[in-house]
Specification:
Blueprint: E1 3-14, E2 17-28, E3 32-36, H1 43-50, E4 58-63, E5 66-67, H2 73-79, E6 81-84, H3 96-103, H4 110-123, H5 125-128, H6 140-152, E7 158-162, H7 170-185, E8 189-193, H8 197-203, E9 206-211, E10 214-220, H9 221-226, H10 228-234
Parallel strand pairs: 3-8, 3-9, 6-7, 7-8
Antiparallel strand pairs: 1-2, 1-4, 4-5, 9-10
Length: about 240
């Protein structure tokens, strides 16, 4: 397998706070890799460092074999990476359709855009019923669907998903995870940050446990899900 993403020994500081300390891992093409850990462990910061929203103070990030350190976020998107942030980041005063159009902003292949838009609406049929509706009036689950659909319109090789099930009813969260699996089966590589460690390890190939800015455990997701320490700490199993 080829490593699509290589994160090597990155540190991130927010002022005097040392948020990430020497974090290293890779994501192979076609995988779902998950980062799990307690609130404040630095999971979202890892995604922000990868997608260009914060600049690591040390280390390197390579995507598809090239260094993306210091590149602005929109250039990283153009290379084939999309980031669905925690809190979804949709434009609530725009319609569902306008949000989707913004996903394809950097593209000019109209036939490809139409095909990807149709596929996104097939994955999320609720959005197809609400194209003219302001995004701010959607339910939390529908807003999460829109955020993922908009990211898919960039046609990403790598999709970064930050807490996609946060605040959602269990049934809606299950649907989101089912779609994550489907997206991966169609060829998109996924790096998933998720508070629901149980679900995350079920959909992932590989897992990494982040503790206070450092990677504490890494391995096949199924093995981590069976590890007694991890089960007690993160899966609520005693």
């Amino acid at each position: 397998m080829t490593a699509l993403l290589e994160v090597d020994n990155i540190d991130v500081h927010y002022g005097g706070i040392h948020a990430l300390k020497g974090v290293s891992f890779s994501v192979d093409e076609g995988q779902v890799v998950t980062l799990i850990g307690a609130n404040g462990a630095g999971k979202s910061t890892v995604l922000r460092a990868i997608s260009g929203l914060v600049k690591p103070s040390k280390g390197s990030v390579k995507f598809a074999g090239r260094s993306i350190m210091g590149l602005p976020a929109h250039e990283i998107v153009a290379l084939g990476m999309a980031h669905v942030p925690e809190g979804r980041g949709i434009f609530s005063n725009l319609t569902v359709d306008e949000n989707l159009q913004l996903g394809a902003f950097l593209r000019n292949d109209s036939a490809g855009i139409a095909k990807d838009r149709a596929r996104a609406l097939e994955l999320f049929p609720r959005l197809a019923e609400r194209l003219g509706q302001n995004a701010g009036t959607l339910s939390g689950g529908e807003q999460q669907m829109l955020a993922i659909a908009r990211a898919l319109l960039t046609r990403p090789k790598l999709l970064l998903l930050d807490e996609p099930s946060l605040g959602l009813a269990p049934q809606v969260a299950q649907l989101i995870f089912k779609i994550v699996r489907q997206i991966q089966s169609e060829g998109t590589t996924i790096l998933l940050v998720e508070q629901n460690a149980h679900q995350a390890l079920k959909v992932a190939t590989t897992g990494h446990v982040l503790e206070v800015g450092k990677l504490a455990h890494s391995g096949p997701a199924a093995e981590l899900a069976r590890d007694d320490k991890i089960r007690k700490a993160y899966l609520g199993v005693h």
